[in-house]
Structure formats: C-alpha cells, structure tokens
Amino acid sequence: MPHIQIKDFREVAFPCVHDGVEFDFIASNVKFPDDKLICAKSEEKTFLLQLKHTQEKWLLKSDKVTRVSPNLHIKRAIQAYADKAGLETLFSNLSEKELHHRDKESALKRIDFFAESFPEAKEIWIEVGFGSGVHLLHQAKENPDVLYVGIEIHKASIEQVLKQISIQKLDNVLLLDFDARLFLEFVPSNLVGRIFVHFPVPWDKKPHRRVISKAFISESIRCLKKEGTLELRTDSENYFAYALETFLALTQSDFRVRKNQDIGIISKYETRWRGMEKNIYDITLTNHELSLPIENSFDFSLTGKCTADLLKLNGSTHRFENGFVHFERLYTMNTGDYLLRLSMGSFDKPEHLFLIIKEDEALYFPSQPIASHTNFQSHLKLKALLYG
C-alpha cells in the first residue's frame, strides 16, 4: 500500500490545491485525535488519506474504505500533501517513476457507472475474482466482440491487469473493484452470456464470505440469458463439496460436473496445482428460464437537523431482521461538521462507507450506498437513529 512515514505532521489551510490534487477537509477521531482523515480529489476520484501517529513518527497512507484504483492517484495525493505541508519524510515507497505513470484508466470503472446505466453490448461475460487476469485477458483477446466485466477486490491484481489491457491494446474489458455479490444486483435480467468464478478463496474458516451461495446462484440465474452459464472452477475439495451441495439444494437446476478438464488456458497457480497432482473441479450451471426485470429505485437522501447524540451512537451496533447499522468511528471536521464511518447492510456482505453530517442534512461519502433492498432497509434504520 502506498505510504510515507514523516517526523512531524503539519496541517495546511483547507481547502487547497497542490500539484493538481484538491484537499477539501481534515477530520479528527473524537476518541483518538492522532487518527486523522484528509479528503483528497485527484482528477475525478475522491478518497480519504489516513494519518496515524505511531511511536515517534506519523504514517500517511490511503484509507481502506475509500481507497481507489489505480494507486497512481493515491501516490500523487500523498506526495502532493507532503510537499504542500513541507513534511520531513523519513521513509517513502512512492516511486517517482510511478507518480507519472498512467495505465489505461478508462477500463477501470466505479460501481456508479454500472448502477446508473449498465453498458450495452451484443454479448457480455463476467468474471468474478480475476486474480492475475490470465483467463480474463485470454478470453478478451480471443473474443473481441464480447464485452468482459472483470471484478476483483485485490488492488495489486487490478493494477497488473490494467497494465496488460494497455499493453495488449484491449478495448473490450471493463474492470471493477467491488464485491461481486452486490454487483450482480445491478446487472439487468437476461443479459449475460457467461459468468466465470475461477478458483475463489475457499474461506473454510469463514464460509459466510464465500462467493458461491444460494443467493449468488439465484442472482446469477436472473442475470443470465436463456442457455447462459455460471461456471465454477476450484482446486479445493471442501469448496467443491460445499458448492455441489448448494447447487443440489436448488428447487430446479441443470448443471454439469467435470474433473481435471483442459479449458485451453491455465494460470501459473493451476500449473503448480497440477504438478502437485491436485484435482481441479468444474461445475457449470445452464440457465433455461427468462427472469423478470429488476427494480432498484430507492431514495437514500437524509435531510433535516440530526437530533441524535453522536457521541453515544459512536461504537454502537443496531440490528434488524435482515441486516444492521454499525457506527464504527466518529470524526470532527475542520468545517465544524461530523464525519461518521459506518458499516451497514446484510451480515454476509456488509457495505463500508462514510457519512458527512451537516447542520441541515447528511451526505453519504464518497457516494451513496449500493441500491439494494437490504441497504435501503439499513438506510431507513440509520435515518430513524439520526432523526428519531
């Protein structure tokens, strides 16, 4: 993760602009004042930098919740703030070369891009957790008339594939840094030809975090065209057994199980597993039905004066039938407003975000929650807690 270590922290006058990066505000944790957040905007990407005091030095890095890709923007913001404030740097992993390197960013999209207007194409395929991108890039190169949407939360993998998209001059690939389980809720019904889930993390100790679930399969079926397929590939015996049981639990389904099949392209990890004589399992489900259109129109506005005692809410968790709202941390902003770090939504796929509380309204930051039914129920719970 891009970061620098500095001897002493100095605060600049907000808002300000330096080296093309805008700095809008700074916020301090009400319980731990040495935990601070700085709002930065590099081109069209808005995010927070986190400042923490450790022993005799300060660490300036990206906040995890709002972290953006590619890292280029984070590195620029860190360096720009350090230069503007005249900070003495003790250590930096910001390469000068990387500060000026630009990947094919047009391939990397925010969730808003898909939620507001899903891209159109004759054929759309989705890969969940593309990792090194070997399979994704191979498919995109072999099928130039297909639009590929690759979903991944591992930042280094995104950076690597962005570079390859640029090098190979591919214009039929879109990448997204997001939870695939939530993403499917925005895909129009009967649209996708194939969904690939290759070698997902097994999560043997935390099975609720697995991608494959009854809900994920149901959403996949809704997204798929008639005769479209959901394809799971795994080397994990436990994951295969779990997935097979999940597919069998469906009221009606048509799927095929294969073992140690050659699919034409393999990653370095699969090569290693084959060398270890590990079995590779494939489960391919074929959809035979047409689904009803989705309806995701929700009002996430929060207007009026907040009447809650935010200090009392800080650190509390509030549950309801299908989800929860957790007030993780409370910050005071240099503007006199408050900044809340929240987690909310369903227990198995929560969303993490911030809320800016002003005199007469509250705004989700840097963007609204994903427009899912559970998130909207969490929003209503949050609204009741803040406004009574």
Provide keyphrases for this structure.
21 strands; 3 domains; 13-stranded antiparallel β-sheet; about 400 residues; 11 helices; eight-stranded mixed β-sheet; Rossmann fold; about 25% helix; alpha+beta
Explain what the structure shows.
With 388 residues, the chain is of the alpha+beta class. The chain folds into three domains: 97 residues; 182 residues, Rossmann fold; 86 residues, no CATH class. Helices cover 26% and strands 33% of the residues. It is built from eleven helices and 21 strands. Strands 1, 2, 3, 4, 5, 6, 7, 16, 17, 18, 19, 20 and 21 form a 13-stranded antiparallel sheet that branches. An eight-stranded mixed sheet has the order 8-11-10-9-12-13-15-14, sandwiched between helices. Strand 4 and strand 5 form a beta hairpin. The longest helix has 15 residues. It is globular. The two termini are 40 Å apart. The model has no long low-confidence stretch (mean pLDDT 91).
Stretches where pLDDT is under 50 for at least 5 consecutive residues are none
CATH superfamily placement of the largest domain = Vaccinia Virus protein VP39
Radius of gyration: 23 Å
Distance between the termini: 40 Å
Characterize the quaternary organization of these chains. Answer: single chain
CATH topology of the largest domain: Rossmann fold
Q: Taking all residues together, what is the mean pLDDT?
A: 91
| Annotation field: number of helices | 11
* Overall 3D form: globular
- Helical content stands at 25-40%
Number of strands: 21
